[in-house]
């Protein structure tokens, strides 16, 4: 039998049990025992689902984050978490979530920094290092869970983050070279592997996903050093890579002295034959043949067609698995009882993916006849998806084929049109505005929920949303803001709202995926060609505009962000999907313009996070992403002012692409960086208007007028004052009106002061 295994299973639970247990515990409503019971229950149930596998992962479960778990295992929780003999779970959550001074008799603790896990939407807690960092083993969690797994009756394979990737993921808090810590780190890994062996582990999955990134010579050297050092360990190491191709690291990955290598064969199919050639004869090759990042059924026949010859060649040296941990997909499709059955038949969530794996293994070992019926039903589903008229819309195809560069070009240059806009809009210097959303009160959420459940008639719902818009516009007028917004009360989420109104999308009910800690997202599923049957936002925005003489800014989400925050189809390049989205949103832009909306903001919050892992692939992505944005935004007349917004601040390496978007105004996050981030714009001589955020909406702190004036003065040292706007860092939907009013009042006062200066 071909060996089957899994790299990780979703831990949040099919009904988000872990989320609710964690949040209950944090609020003090649930005891630690109860929390641990829920966690143990989830682990046991996850292992039961994985019992058919030859090897199931242990240590993939986490109460918050697997990288933070590794920090705890290596005795590297930051000192501010508390003393070594403090309550362990307290120390852990202090770093996971921070602690405010109010919760505590002495002082606050700031949380560990959070950042994206490679190119996924999962966020991990960044390990912290300094010159004093010393590692020491705390193996309790892994050993306990190893015993639990065995009690459930799985063949357990501990899964840990490898030493070099661990250092790579972290940040040095002084100028200590992270690699200088390797010497101290390796003995702790050796000790851990020994203990795992003593406790019966035969194989250990050791993740080194940095092997799919561009590595400097020092990091490649560190990998060599580390694995030569761990060679003596009594367990067999499965060196595990995922999320991409090995490329220039292929030979290195094949040659490191371990017992096996896992390759992401969904991304690196082309490398399989080179790897089989390079890999020494005593090593196992694990192929990730099922996409762990997407929700589509695997085409089993096609997979078998290329896998069978590999099996012929490698025989029992071939293992199969999902491409990466299944953390990035929802748990169980069987819960989706209300989803359109045809589309559901094309999908596979974590449990279904493991069933596919089992089928592949049986077909390889016992021949395809052994699973003929299952293969037939898989082939039917694949065919039904391929041929469905719901997937392909000839008109959309035609429109995409007819795209010309003109479609993405404004009529005139920024200089020319900004003069026209200035005379039209008559805005003062340092115009003030917001990013779009205003507080999403309990009432608003109730209203939307009731409407969804059919408890509120459409007319009643519309009247309530109009009332929210009226309130929001009145508040903004009273504050004296210059460019108003409608407040986004009708939107649950900036992507889902549009997805629901576009053809080509379906929605799951329980398709939650962990984003960080207890937070989950439910990405909409983009399955077909995208079109916009009718206007999506015009009614609300026109209504808002009718309430005020001030210019009102219409609010849309851009194509790149919609793409990056959805599960998207795997049967065409992302670029093609993005262009379809661009054409659909472009229609909305033109309808808004037609309706008399003179300022339109197109949010691209997720543009940066779509960047490929390797910098050498960036340009290709940026080229089509920027093209998609331009197609969306640039069909308007000179007098229409296009804004875009991005809620991050690292622009250094993408500034040229940002400039190519040619938005008249860009609003960005900057308040926490003291405006230093504008240096990128200054250095590039970025030509258009910029609104650097002056109010950190992630914090309950209300900035004072003086602070805002000082920030804007710093901004004006970098960008000519006549091109500066004043606005918060991001939308205000998570804040309360009590916080928002004084903050915006301070902002408006700061603008007045700056104009008089
Ligand atoms: N317009 C959106 C809002 O204000 C933008 C959100 C975002 O950038 N994440 O909420
Ligand atoms: Zn934002």
UniProtKB/TrEMBL annotation:
<dbReference type="InterPro" id="IPR006276">
    <property type="entry name" value="Cobalamin-indep_Met_synthase"/>
</dbReference>
<comment type="pathway">
    <text>Amino-acid biosynthesis; L-methionine biosynthesis via de novo pathway; L-methionine from L-homocysteine (MetE route): step 1/1.</text>
</comment>
<comment type="similarity">
    <text>Belongs to the vitamin-B12 independent methionine synthase family.</text>
</comment>
<feature type="binding site">
    <location>
        <position position="730"/>
    </location>
    <ligand>
        <name>Zn(2+)</name>
    </ligand>
</feature>
<dbReference type="Pfam" id="PF01717">
    <property type="entry name" value="Meth_synt_2"/>
</dbReference>
<feature type="binding site">
    <location>
        <position position="669"/>
    </location>
    <ligand>
        <name>Zn(2+)</name>
    </ligand>
</feature>
<feature type="binding site">
    <location>
        <position position="645"/>
    </location>
    <ligand>
        <name>Zn(2+)</name>
    </ligand>
</feature>
<protein>
    <recommendedName>
        <fullName>5-methyltetrahydropteroyltriglutamate--homocysteine methyltransferase</fullName>
        <ecNumber>2.1.1.14</ecNumber>
    </recommendedName>
</protein>
<keyword id="KW-0862">Zinc</keyword>
<feature type="binding site">
    <location>
        <begin position="435"/>
        <end position="437"/>
    </location>
    <ligand>
        <name>L-homocysteine</name>
    </ligand>
</feature>
<keyword id="KW-0479">Metal-binding</keyword>
<dbReference type="Pfam" id="PF08267">
    <property type="entry name" value="Meth_synt_1"/>
</dbReference>
<feature type="binding site">
    <location>
        <begin position="16"/>
        <end position="19"/>
    </location>
    <ligand>
        <name>5-methyltetrahydropteroyltri-L-glutamate</name>
    </ligand>
</feature>
<comment type="function">
    <text>Catalyzes the transfer of a methyl group from 5-methyltetrahydrofolate to homocysteine resulting in methionine formation.</text>
</comment>
<dbReference type="InterPro" id="IPR038071">
    <property type="entry name" value="UROD/MetE-like_sf"/>
</dbReference>
<feature type="binding site">
    <location>
        <position position="116"/>
    </location>
    <ligand>
        <name>5-methyltetrahydropteroyltri-L-glutamate</name>
    </ligand>
</feature>
<keyword id="KW-0028">Amino-acid biosynthesis</keyword>
<feature type="binding site">
    <location>
        <begin position="519"/>
        <end position="520"/>
    </location>
    <ligand>
        <name>5-methyltetrahydropteroyltri-L-glutamate</name>
    </ligand>
</feature>
<dbReference type="InterPro" id="IPR013215">
    <property type="entry name" value="Cbl-indep_Met_Synth_N"/>
</dbReference>
<feature type="binding site">
    <location>
        <position position="488"/>
    </location>
    <ligand>
        <name>L-methionine</name>
    </ligand>
</feature>
<keyword id="KW-0486">Methionine biosynthesis</keyword>
<feature type="domain" description="Cobalamin-independent methionine synthase MetE N-terminal">
    <location>
        <begin position="4"/>
        <end position="314"/>
    </location>
</feature>
<feature type="binding site">
    <location>
        <begin position="435"/>
        <end position="437"/>
    </location>
    <ligand>
        <name>L-methionine</name>
    </ligand>
</feature>
<feature type="binding site">
    <location>
        <position position="488"/>
    </location>
    <ligand>
        <name>L-homocysteine</name>
    </ligand>
</feature>
<feature type="domain" description="Cobalamin-independent methionine synthase MetE C-terminal/archaeal">
    <location>
        <begin position="431"/>
        <end position="752"/>
    </location>
</feature>
<feature type="binding site">
    <location>
        <position position="609"/>
    </location>
    <ligand>
        <name>5-methyltetrahydropteroyltri-L-glutamate</name>
    </ligand>
</feature>
<feature type="binding site">
    <location>
        <position position="647"/>
    </location>
    <ligand>
        <name>Zn(2+)</name>
    </ligand>
</feature>
<feature type="binding site">
    <location>
        <position position="603"/>
    </location>
    <ligand>
        <name>L-methionine</name>
    </ligand>
</feature>
<keyword id="KW-0808">Transferase</keyword>
<feature type="active site" description="Proton donor">
    <location>
        <position position="698"/>
    </location>
</feature>
<keyword id="KW-0489">Methyltransferase</keyword>
<dbReference type="InterPro" id="IPR002629">
    <property type="entry name" value="Met_Synth_C/arc"/>
</dbReference>
<feature type="binding site">
    <location>
        <position position="603"/>
    </location>
    <ligand>
        <name>L-homocysteine</name>
    </ligand>
</feature>
<feature type="binding site">
    <location>
        <position position="565"/>
    </location>
    <ligand>
        <name>5-methyltetrahydropteroyltri-L-glutamate</name>
    </ligand>
</feature>
<keyword id="KW-0677">Repeat</keyword>
């Amino acid at each position: 039998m071909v060996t089957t295994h899994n790299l990780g299973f979703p831990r949040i639970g099919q009904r988000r049990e872990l989320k609710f247990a964690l949040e209950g515990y944090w609020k003090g409503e649930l005891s630690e025992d109860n929390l641990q019971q829920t966690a143990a229950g989830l682990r046991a149930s996850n292992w039961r689902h994985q019992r058919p596998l030859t090897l199931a992962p242990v240590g993939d479960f986490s109460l918050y984050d697997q990288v933070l778990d590794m920090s705890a295992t290596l005795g590297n929780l930051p000192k501010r978490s508390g003393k070594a003999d403090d309550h362990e779970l307290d120390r852990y959550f202090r770093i996971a979530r921070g602690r405010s001074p109010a919760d505590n008799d002495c002082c606050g603790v700031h949380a560990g920094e959070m950042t994206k896990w490679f190119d996924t939407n999962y966020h991990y807690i960044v390990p912290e290092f300094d010159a004093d960092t010393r590692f020491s083993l705390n193996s309790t969690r892994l050993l306990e869970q190893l015993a639990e797994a065995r009690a459930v009756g799985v063949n357990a394979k501990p899964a840990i983050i490898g030493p070099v990737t661990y250092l790579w993921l972290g940040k040095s808090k002084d100028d200590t070279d992270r690699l200088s810590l390797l010497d101290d780190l390796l003995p702790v890994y050796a000790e851990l592997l020994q203990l795992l062996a003593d406790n019966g582990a035969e194989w250990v999955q050791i993740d080194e996903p940095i092997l799919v990134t561009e590595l400097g010579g020092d990091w490649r050297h560190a990998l060599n050093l580390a694995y030569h050092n761990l060679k003596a360990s009594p367990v067999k190491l499965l060196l595990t890579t995922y999320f991409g191709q090995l490329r220039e690291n292929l030979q290195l990955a094949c040659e490191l002295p371990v017992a096996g290598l896992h390759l992401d064969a969904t991304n690196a199919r082309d490398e399989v034959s080179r790897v089989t050639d390079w890999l020494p004869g005593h090593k196992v090759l694990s192929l990730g043949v099922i996409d762990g990042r997407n929700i589509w059924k695997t085409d089993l026949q096609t997979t078998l067609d290329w896998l069978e010859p590999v099996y012929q060649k490698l025989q029992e040296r071939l293992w199969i698995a999902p491409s990466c941990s299944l953390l990035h997909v929802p748990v169980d499709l069987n819960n989706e009882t209300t989803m359109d059955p045809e589309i559901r038949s094309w999908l596979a969530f974590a449990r279904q993916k493991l069933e596919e794996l089992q089928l592949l293994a049986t077909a390889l070992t016992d021949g395809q006849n052994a699973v003929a019926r299952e293969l037939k039903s898989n082939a039917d589903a694949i065919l039904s998806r391929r041929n469905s008229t719901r997937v392909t819309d000839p008109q959309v195809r035609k429109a995409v084929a007819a795209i010309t560069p003109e479609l993405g070009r404004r009529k005139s240059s920024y200089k020319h049109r900004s003069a026209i806009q200035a005379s039209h809009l008559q805005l003062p210097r340092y115009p003030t505005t917001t990013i779009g959303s205003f507080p999403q009160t309990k009432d608003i959420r109730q209203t939307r929920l009731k409407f969804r459940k059919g408890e509120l008639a459409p007319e009643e719902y519309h009247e309530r949303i109009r009332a929210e818009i009226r309130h929001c516009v009145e508040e903004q007028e009273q504050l004296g803001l210059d460019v108003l917004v409608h407040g986004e009360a009708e939107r649950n989420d900036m992507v889902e709202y549009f997805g629901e109104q576009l053809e080509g999308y379906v929605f799951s009910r329980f398709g939650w995926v962990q984003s960080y800690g207890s937070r989950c997202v439910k990405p909409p599923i983009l399955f077909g060609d995208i079109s916009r049957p009718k206007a999506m936002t015009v009614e609300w925005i026109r209504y808002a505009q009718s309430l005020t003489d001030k210019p009102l800014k219409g609010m849309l989400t851009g194509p790149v962000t919609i793409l990056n925050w959805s599960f998207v189809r795997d049967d065409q390049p992302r670029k093609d999907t993005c262009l379809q989205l661009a054409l659909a949103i472009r229609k909305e832009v033109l309808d808004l313009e037609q309706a008399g909306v003179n300022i339109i903001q197109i949010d691209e919050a997720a543009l940066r996070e779509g960047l490929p892992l390797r910098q050498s692939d960036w340009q290709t992505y940026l080229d089509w992403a920027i093209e998609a944005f331009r197609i969306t935004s640039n069909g308007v007349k000179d007098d229409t002012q296009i804004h875009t917004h991005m809620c991050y601040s690292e622009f250094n390496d993408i500034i040229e692409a940002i400039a190519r978007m040619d938005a008249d105004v860009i609003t960005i996050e900057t308040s926490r960086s003291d405006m230093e981030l504008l240096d990128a714009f200054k250095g590039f001589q970025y030509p258009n208007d910029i609104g650097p955020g002056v109010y950190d909406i992630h914090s309950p702190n209300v900035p004072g007028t003086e602070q805002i004036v000082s920030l804007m003065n710093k901004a004006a040292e970098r960008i000519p004052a006549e091109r500066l706007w004043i606005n918060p860092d991001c939308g205000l939907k998570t804040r309360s009106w009590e916080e928002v009013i004084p903050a915006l009042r301070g902002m408006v006062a700061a603008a007045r002061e700056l104009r008089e200066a």
